[in-house]
Specification:
The chain has about 325 residues and is of the alpha+beta class. It folds into three domains: about 45 residues, no CATH class; about 160 residues, Rossmann fold (3-Layer(aba) Sandwich), CATH 3.40.50.300; about 100 residues, no CATH class. The protein is built from six helices and 16 strands. The longest helix has 12 residues. About 0% of the residues have low confidence.
């Protein structure tokens, strides 16, 4: 077994002894493991059981350095407790809001930046980017070089936020390295830290994504994961609902509007997801067997469903949300 060479795709030690264990390769001369090879070439995903406890140890190791940290977050799926990273890491940190290309062009990035700067002052800077459109990557690199304290810069964030996509873009734009990280819309693609030399002054260190156990992506099949994961600009869908009317998303989510004046519900979710409106909640029992959560919605709040996106609700009212009990949801002040 090779105890030194690691997979350039996911960071695990390469080994050729046990096909059932992570890091397996048919030849130790290969640069990537069999799992990464099959993901890259055939789109096949093999799940790996990893816990946040393992990832936390890695993040605690980052905290012991004084190095700059990039916290990557998905604009469509921002975590409820984005500031919790500060309870683990006190290093200088840039909040990088990825996937601007997925939000409608009408959404102004200045408003998004103000939203986070108003809420907290935990980050040296908030930068909006799109790795897919190569948007603001030059500016991000300049700010990395401005804030970095050594040549090492750590990249952290939840699964599917786009960490590997960003690193691959930086490699492509600014490095002669032929290295490429494995990318997938599914959780736990990167399994260990990976060092990527961009130039003599900058080495990026990718870390495994924190697993959001409450994400819908962890509770649907691979086909639905790909459907949920938006790959192009979202076309918001707005529904004017009266009391006792509903919205149903695929066979996953049901939102009943149970109390309030006529209200506007705008869905910021993948265009590939089917949505239907029910004109009377009493005539249809679809998904009523799911777990129910009742929310008292205030003016201009978003209902966020972890991993799926969010629903912008204009007026106050009461809603009943039906979905799998293991999926997280929460209300926040409207992002847009």
């Amino acid at each position: 077994m090779n105890d030194k060479k690691v997979c350039q795709g996911c960071g695990v030690l390469l080994q050729d002894e046990n096909v059932l264990q992570e890091g397996y390769t048919t030849n130790l001369e290969n640069d990537i493991c069999q799992r990464c090879f099959r993901m890259k070439n055939y789109g096949e995903y093999q799940s790996v059981a990893k816990t946040n406890e393992e990832y936390m140890k890695i993040l605690q190791g980052v905290a012991e350095t004084k190095d700059l940290v990039l916290y990557i977050a998905d604009l469509l799926n921002l975590e409820k407790t984005i500031e919790d990273i500060r309870s683990i890491i006190s290093n200088k940190m840039i909040l990088v809001l990825n996937k601007k290309d997925v939000l409608p062009k009408s959404v102004k990035e200045e408003k998004i930046i103000q939203y986070f700067e108003k809420e907290n002052h935990l980050f040296e800077e908030v930068i909006v980017i799109s790795t897919f459109k190569n948007y603001n990557i030059d500016y991000l690199l300049k700010r990395i070089k401005y804030y970095q304290t050594s040549r090492n810069v750590y990249v952290v964030g939840h699964t599917n936020a786009g960490k590997s996509s960003l690193i691959n873009k930086l490699i492509h734009n600014y490095s002669d390295s032929g290295q490429e990280l494995t990318m997938s819309p599914l959780p736990s693609t990167t399994l260990n830290t990976i060092h990527i030399v961009i130039d003599e002054h900058l080495t990026l260190i990718d870390t495994p994504g924190l697993v959001d156990a409450g994400s819908i992506l962890n509770h649907v099949d691979e086909k639905m994961v790909k459907k949920i994961s938006a790959r192009k600009e979202i076309k918001p869908r707005t529904y004017q609902l009266r009391k006792n009317q509903s919205i149903i998303i695929e066979d996953l989510i049901r939102i009943d509007y149970v109390e309030g004046e006529k209200n506007s519900f705008t869905l910021f979710i993948s265009n590939d997801l089917k949505v239907r409106r029910l004109l009377n909640v009493f005539n249809n029992e679809d998904l009523k067997d799911k777990n129910k959560i009742t929310y008292q919605v205030k003016y201009d709040e978003d209902l966020v469903i972890s991993g799926l996106g969010f629903v912008k609700i204009v007026n106050k009212g009461v809603i009943d949300l039906y979905m799998d009990k293991n999926i997280d949801s929460f209300l926040r002040k409207s992002l847009i």
